[in-house]
Structures
1.
Amino acid sequence: MSIDLEKIDLIKERMDISYREAKEALEENEGDVIGALAYLEEKNQTSSILLHRGKEMAVRIGALLEKGNRTKLKLKKYDDTLLEVPANLGVLALLAAMVSKEFAIVGAIGTSAALAKDYVIEIERPGKEDINLH
């Protein structure tokens, strides 16, 4: 396994990487320059694929958050709206209820009491029919 500065320089310049990365690629491929170049190309391809998938996921999450902010949960009594919050806040409350028994119990009692006292929980979805829970 022969790794010298000439090989490291060649790989460093071809792949636009640091000396350390070039040396590690050569070590990984027992001093073979072509093997080290192929190794680095494959490594860069994998990184590009992961970066692309990460960006796609960020776009999807952003779209879900936007939709959740446009969707509203309303607490109403007859035609009067007493409380209106984005659906994302309701999702956070649901997650908190999953973590904390006390929060889940308080939420269940509050929801049951509201529905028993002629309150309505309405889910307003832009472009779609509203959902009413009586």
Note: Strands lie at 72-77, 80-86, 119-124, 131-133.
2.
Amino acid sequence: MTTRESFLQRVRQAVVEGNRIVGEASLPDRGRIGYQGAGPDPVESFCRACRTAGGVPLVVDDGAAAWQHIQQVLDERRAQRIAVGAGGLVAALGLTALLRQRGCEVTPMDQAPGSDFRDRMFAADVGISNVAYLVAETGSIIMATAPSEPRSLTLLPPVHIALARRSQILADLFDLFEIFARKIAFHQEAPPSCLTIITGPSKTGDIELKLVTGVHGPGEVYVVICPDGIAAAATAPTAKR
């Protein structure tokens, strides 16, 4: 066996082993079909694909359940320093106030950044963000960079909690690019400076072709899927000491 053949064999083996780590079967061969869609239930399809990619989807019925799941993640990680986005579900759930009442050190994105903003983002235990969309077929989170949702919010903290409404779930990446192309073509809004597609925790196979999680970004990704008419959590927690 030549050096080239030996190298390609190691690549093939690493791919097989990496797929086994995920724990579920890979998608069927597309052949000439580029669009697969999300099936009859986009929420179920997203959750299945998200788990396959290593993420943790959490479907809730109201604001209280969403806050309960968020607290559980914080408790399990003993998280105290939280970076949090602005607007959207973050505002609807009143998360900034709830987190502060809990006793957390909160860095909200809707406040003017101080001189220590960069250090606070690197030191954050958890980042909580809104999303632009979710993609059911691939279990992906779509982030459109904005002052209230900077890339650092989903890139620097080791744990990322994304909040989405059910109506934000798209069937396929084809739908995503069609939406942005239409908005730009009709001058409905300027394109974001960066459109990020996050599929599960950060992974890399650069080192010895071994799949490693959490090197270039969060090692844990949670997606809280809320109903469209969600209201804020009614009960504030007791501050942790």
Note: The longest strand covers residues 159-165.
3.
Amino acid sequence: MIKMNSKQLRVSLGDDEIKKQLQHNPIYIVLDNVLDTYNIGAIFRLADGVAAEKVILCAGSETPPNSRIKKASINTTEWVNWEYYPTTVEAIKKLRAEVPGIQIVAVEQDIRSVPFQETAYKFPVALVVGHETDGVSQEVLALCDKIVELPMYGINVSLNVMVSLGIVLYKVLDSLN
């Protein structure tokens, strides 16, 4: 297993041979129109942290190479597999066709959502997160197998998309063990 600190990552270029040797968990992260490039970069760091199979950027989400994504990701964009699709619907349909039995789970506040910590996750799994203000689109929510949310106990109604994803990702990892 390769371990690099942030200084090493900032100057590294993803070596294709090393990338092939990296072990991945059967986790896909789908960004439905996430616009903030710092969120996108941080999500690449999360994807690396949980050894996700792939990050799928959709709709208005910026893609690497982008200096702000690179800075926030500390160059993990060079190591994490990623793809771009013009629509999230297209991305989910392709995932279902290419990854047999994949469970699609949106992280979103919705009347149909259930607490993330009470949900049974199965692998392979795709976690879908959405636009910082508008969330995951209704069209995409309709394609998901489950919708989970984090409880909010204070006066604020939501957490940052990257923070919410990180919490759910590590809960999903617990299901793998």
Note: Helices lie at 6-11, 16-21, 37-49, 67-73, 88-98, 138-141, 161-176.
4.
Amino acid sequence: MHHPELTMAAYKAAIDDGADGFECDVRITKDNQLVLWHDADMQRICGDSALIANSTLSEIKDIYPEAMTLEELLILARDNKKELAIETKHPVPTGSAVEKAVLTLLAQEKAVADIYIMSFSWLALEKVRLISPQQKTVALLDKRFGGLMRRFTSAQAIGPGITTLREKPELSRDERKLFVWTVDDAHDMRFCASKGVDVLITNTPSYARSVLGYH
């Protein structure tokens, strides 16, 4: 069953579907709250042009009551012993404020299993390393700057999209941990398994478990 992205209903469905962990996108609001949101504005999800960076959490929830905070997801992950991959979104007008806020929150929450911070921004990941050298990070690879990111990042893991991995299967020989997104097709799932992918990010965890033979 389909649930709106980045909502409590979606994450609870992922638990029911046997997901090993959660993935989320995080932005910081005008009042410095960490909200789960992919786009810079609210247009695609609810037809409102409000910008996340220019809105308070209260204003966002008035427009879209299902909006979640990162703290709420951390509690859900902790209570259900799920790993967590947090993508900080860039570019944003607040620069590295989102990474600082995420690390502050994580420092208060010790009981979640593995937590990774992911980003397409090389600078964001270096800021994370500077603030918290022990924090695990994933360098997300885009088509334009993926080669440079892979070469110069300090991240312990790399994260190509499934299309990139198919075009460059040699990425699977990288010594770092391999996260691949977003893998919803059975052929792609089997391809990832054959390449030794460590973390498969999918919208269909129950289907993925069935295809890959996990019970």
Note: The chain has a mean pLDDT of 95.
